[in-house]
Specification:
Helices cover 37% and strands 20% of the residues. The relative contact order is 0.09.
C-alpha cells in the first residue's frame, strides 16, 4: 500500500504536476474537514468526563468509533498530500487505536447456563440472581423468615435472550442517542427499545427451564397465578432502583413468558434508563434476573422502616411500619396515605403511636380505622430487627399478610433516610414577615431539606415532559415516574403518598426535598407561584424565604462509579495534548501520545504542505492564466474550484473583475488601491531568478519569474515576487470561523528602515 501510494505520487510529480497540485488541494480540504470533526468529537468526550453528563457507555463507544474514523481520515488526507513524509504516523495511530479498543470494550456478556436457580441458590450467587432475589434468598435461608415460594431466571438467561435475538447492537444504537434533557425523545427511544424486547422470542433453553420449574411447583400444590418481579444486578443494594422496574402481578401459568418479557422490557423504561445513567452504570452492568413467586392473596400489605422518626425535628429513632389494605402497590407507588405504627427501638420495640389512614376501611381490633393489630406490628418489628442485623444496617422491608393472617416478607434493601438535621434545623423557623405567609402546613416529610422555585402543577404522568428546570413540582400522588425528571426539580409536594413510597427512596438518594400527604397542595398552590418548601418541617411558604436559604438542599455529589473510572482511563489515550510547539525536535509522530496529539500534528503538517504548495519553479501551474492588469506586475492565476466566474473560466486572460475567490479579491483590492504607489517603468518579478537565467533568452512575462495565485472560492495560496522580495500568503476564509486561518511569510531583499517597520506592522 505504502509503495503504491509513493509510486503514484512520484509519477504525478514528474508527469502531471498540475493534477498533483489539484489532488493535494482536495486532500487538504478533506484534512480540514476531518480535523474539525475530530476536535468536535474530542470535545464531546471531554464534556461527558468533566461535566459528568449522564450518558450510556454506548454513547462513549459511538463517539470513540467516530473519532477513530475521523482521525484515520485525517491521516489519510495528510499522507495523500505527501506519502513519503508521514508513513510512521499511521503506525503510531494504530498503536493508539489498539489501546483505545481495549479500553472502550466492555467485558463479554456470559450467556452460559444456569438459566434458572432456586431461591436458596440465589442467596450465594448475587451475580446470577440480581439484588432482590439474592436478598430474598438470604432472608429465607439465613434468617429463616417466611416468604413466598418461587425461583429465579438468571442474568445469564437475559444475556442469552439478547444474543438469541441479536439485540445488543440495536439496543446500543438506541442507548447511544439517549439524552436526559431530551424529554419526548427519551420516551421515543424507550418505546422502541421496549418494543424490541417484547417482539422477540424467549430462547428455547430458557422456555424449557421456566416450564420445568413451574411444573415442579404445580406438583407441590402451587398452581399459580404468579408474581413476576425484576431482580436486576445492582437493584436493592447501595443503589436502590426503587420502583424503576416492573412487577407483573397475578400472571396465569400460560402467560408467564409474556410477563417475563415485560419485566425485561422495563429495564428500558424512561425512568429506569434515566436512573441508571445518573448512577453511572452501563447497560451491561445491570443485566436483568427475574423472580417467579407465588401470588399471596394479601388482605394487608406494607413496608417496615427499621430506623425512622415520628417527626424530623426530634431526630429520635423509631421503627416504623406502614400498612395499607390489599396489595401494597398503592403504598409504594405513592398514591395513598398509609396507616403508620411507631415502635421504640430503644425500649424493646414497645408501641409508641399509631397514626390512622383516611383510606383504611378495616377495623380488626374494634378501636377505630386500623389495618394492623398491635400483635402483628410487633411480629413484623422483630423480623425487621433480625433483617437489620443480617443486612448490617437499617432496612426497608416489604411485607404482606394473607386472608388467613399469615405474614410474608417480600423483599428487603438498605434504608436511605436522608441527612440528619442540625440542631438549629430541627426547630421550625418563625416567619414574622407577612410577605411570606404559610400556604401549606402539615403532611409528612418523605425526604428532608429546603427547596426554592416556581410551582408547576401536574395531574397526569404524561405531563412530566413539560416540567421546566428549577420547578417545585406539585402533584396529586408521588409516582415513581418522577425519577425521570428528578434533575429538573427543586422540591416536590404531593397530596397523597408516604415516605415509604419508591420515589421517596429515590429522592432521599438525590437529596431532593419531598413533602407528602398534604391533602390540599394541588388546590392551595398556584402554577407559576414562587415558593419555599421546607420539607423538614412540613411547610410551604410564599416567595423565597431568605432565612431558609442556608438550609437549601444540595444535590449529593455522585460517588465515583465504574463508568467514571473507565472513561477517565479511556481519555488518557484521547485528550492530553503534549505536542504544542511545531518547531520542537519532538514534534514528530513517535511523540504523539494521544489522538489529540495526532490531530495537532496532522493539522500543522497539512498547513505546512499547503504553505509550500508551489515552489520557485512553478511546477504544476502549466494551466494557469495570466492576470490582465495595468499594474506593473506579472501574475498568473490557477482556479482550483470556484475561484473564477464562468466568464473568467472561458477567457484566455483573466481580468480582476472575474475573480470570485474571496481572499484573492481582498488582496487585489489592497494591491490595486489608489494609495499604493507603483513604479510604472519597472516590472515587478523575481529578479533573483532573472539574474540566474540572464544568459538565457527569458521573457519578462515568463511563468518562471511571475507571481502566482492558486485559489478556490474561499482558499488562496498567493506567491508574490517583488524584485528580491518573496512573500507567501496561504489562507482559508470560509463560513466556518473555526476552520479559517491565515499564514504569511516574507523573506529576502532589502529596504529602508521605514519600510522594514511597515513589514513588522503588517505581521502584527
Amino acid at each position: 500500500m505504502y509503495l503504491r501510494r509513493l509510486f503514484k505520487y512520484w509519477t504525478l510529480q514528474v508527469l502531471a504536476p498540475g493534477k498533483l497540485l489539484r489532488l493535494k488541494y482536495e486532500a487538504f480540504k478533506e484534512l480540514l474537514r476531518h480535523d474539525k470533526k475530530s476536535l468536535e468529537l474530542i470535545t464531546d468526550l471531554e464534556e461527558i468526563l468533566h461535566a459528568g453528563l449522564p450518558v450510556d457507555w454506548a454513547r462513549v463507544e459511538s463517539l470513540v468509533r467516530a473519532l477513530l474514523w475521523s482521525v484515520g481520515g485525517l491521516i489519510r488526507s495528510l499522507i495523500a498530500m505527501h506519502p513519503a513524509a508521514y508513513a510512521d504516523l499511521e503506525e503510531q495511530f494504530q498503536r493508539l487505536e489498539w489501546s483505545l479498543a481495549e479500553a472502550v470494550t466492555l467485558p463479554e456478556e456470559d450467556s452460559r447456563p444456569p438459566y434458572a436457580i432456586t431461591l436458596a441458590e440465589a442467596a450465594s450467587t448475587p451475580e446470577l440472581a440480581g439484588g432482590k432475589a439474592h436478598t430474598l434468598g438470604r432472608m429465607l435461608r439465613e434468617a429463616s423468615l417466611p416468604g413466598p415460594r418461587g425461583f429465579v431466571v438468571t442474568t445469564r438467561a437475559f444475556h442469552l435472550f439478547l444474543q438469541h435475538n441479536g439485540l445488543r447492537h440495536r439496543l446500543d444504537e438506541l442507548l447511544a442517542q439517549v439524552q436526559l434533557d431530551g424529554g419526548e425523545r427519551l420516551e421515543e427511544l424507550s418505546r422502541e427499545m421496549r418494543a424490541t424486547i417484547l417482539e422477540s422470542e424467549v430462547p428455547p433453553e430458557v422456555q424449557e427451564e421456566i416450564t420445568q420449574r413451574l411444573a415442579n411447583f404445580q406438583r407441590l400444590g402451587v398452581p399459580g397465578p404468579w408474581v413476576v418481579r425484576s431482580s436486576a444486578l445492582s437493584e436493592d443494594g447501595e443503589i436502590s432502583f426503587a420502583g424503576q422496574y416492573a412487577s407483573v402481578v397475578g400472571v396465569p401459568t400460560a402467560q408467564v413468558l409474556e410477563a417475563y418479557k415485560q419485566v425485561l422490557a422495563s429495564k428500558y423504561s424512561p425512568r429506569a434508563v434515566a436512573y441508571r445513567l445518573r448512577c453511572g452504570l452501563t447497560d451491561q452492568e445491570t443485566p436483568m434476573a427475574v423472580l417467579f413467586l407465588e401470588l399471596i392473596e394479601a388482605s394487608v400489605s406494607g413496608v417496615v422502616y427499621t430506623h425512622d422518626t415520628k417527626a424530623r425535628a426530634e431526630q429520635r429513632p423509631y421503627l416504623a411500619i406502614f400498612a395499607v389494605p390489599g396489595l401494597g402497590q398503592r403504598l409504594v407507588d405513592g398514591s395513598t396515605i398509609p396507616e403508620i405504627h411507631y415502635l421504640n427501638r430503644e425500649q424493646e420495640l414497645q408501641p409508641v403511636e399509631t397514626i390512622s389512614s383516611p383510606h383504611c376501611p378495616l377495623d380488626p381490633g374494634g378501636k377505630g380505622r386500623v389495618c394492623l393489630p398491635t400483635e402483628t406490628a410487633s411480629t413484623l418489628a422483630g423480623w425487621g430487627m433480625a433483617l437489620e442485623k443480617l443486612g448490617g444496617g437499617p432496612q426497608d422491608i416489604e411485607w404482606c399478610q394473607d386472608k388467613n393472617g399469615a405474614l410474608y416478607l417480600l423483599q428487603s434493601r438498605p434504608l436511605r433516610m436522608g441527612p440528619d438535621l442540625s440542631e438549629d434545623q430541627r426547630q421550625p423557623p418563625t416567619i414574622p414577615d407577612l410577605s411570606h405567609p404559610i400556604l401549606v402546613e402539615g403532611g409528612v416529610t418523605a425526604s428532608p431539606g429546603v427547596g426554592f422555585g416556581r410551582v408547576w402543577v401536574i395531574k397526569r404522568g404524561d405531563e412530566l415532559v413539560e416540567v421546566p428546570e428549577g420547578s417545585v413540582l406539585v402533584s396529586p400522588t408521588l409516582s415513581p415516574a418522577l425519577a425521570t425528571i428528578i434533575e429538573r426539580l427543586r422540591a416536590v409536594v404531593a397530596d397523597e403518598g408516604s415516605r415509604a413510597s419508591h420515589f421517596a427512596t429515590v429522592a432521599r438518594e438525590y437529596g431532593l426535598p419531598v413533602l407528602v400527604g398534604t391533602l390540599e397542595a394541588t388546590r392551595c398552590l398556584t402554577p407559576g407561584q414562587p415558593v419555599t418548601v421546607d420539607a423538614s418541617h412540613g411547610r410551604v411558604y410564599q416567595g423565597e424565604v431568605e432565612s431558609l436559604k442556608e438550609h437549601a438542599a444540595q444535590a449529593r455529589a455522585r460517588p465515583e462509579t465504574p463508568f467514571d473510572a473507565r472513561l477517565r482511563a479511556l481519555m488518557t489515550f484521547i485528550s492530553p495534548l503534549t505536542l504544542t510547539d511545531p518547531t520542537s525536535p519532538e514534534f514528530t509522530p513517535k511523540h504523539c501520545q494521544s489522538l489529540h496529539d495526532v490531530v495537532r500534528f496532522a493539522h500543522e503538517k497539512g498547513m505546512a504542505e499547503m504553505f509550500s504548495l508551489v515552489g520557485r519553479s512553478g511546477r504544476g501551474l502549466a494551466r494557469a492564466k495570466k492576470l490582465a492588469t495595468d499594474l506593473p506586475l506579472v501574475m498568473y492565476v490557477l482556479d482550483l474550484e470556484g475561484g473564477l466566474s464562468l466568464a473568467g473560466q472561458a477567457s484566455k486572460k483573466v481580468e480582476p473583475r472575474f475573480i470570485t475567490c474571496e481572499p484573492m479579491r481582498a488582496c487585489w483590492e489592497g494591491l490595486s488601491h489608489p494609495d499604493v504607489f507603483w513604479h510604472k517603468g519597472l516590472v515587478h518579478m523575481d529578479w533573483q531568478e532573472f539574474d540566474r537565467l540572464s544568459a538565457s533568452v527569458v521573457s519578462l512575462s515568463s511563468k518562471v519569474l511571475a507571481s502566482y495565485a492558486v485559489m478556490s472560492r474561499n482558499y488562496l495560496h498567493l506567491i508574490l515576487r517583488f524584485g528580491y522580495h518573496f512573500a507567501v500568503l496561504d489562507t482559508l476564509c470560509g463560513e466556518d470561523p473555526e476552520a479559517n486561518y491565515i499564514a504569511f511569510r516574507f523573506k529576502g531583499g532589502g529596504a529602508s528602515y521605514e519600510n522594514r517597520l511597515w513589514r513588522v506592522e503588517l505581521i502584527k
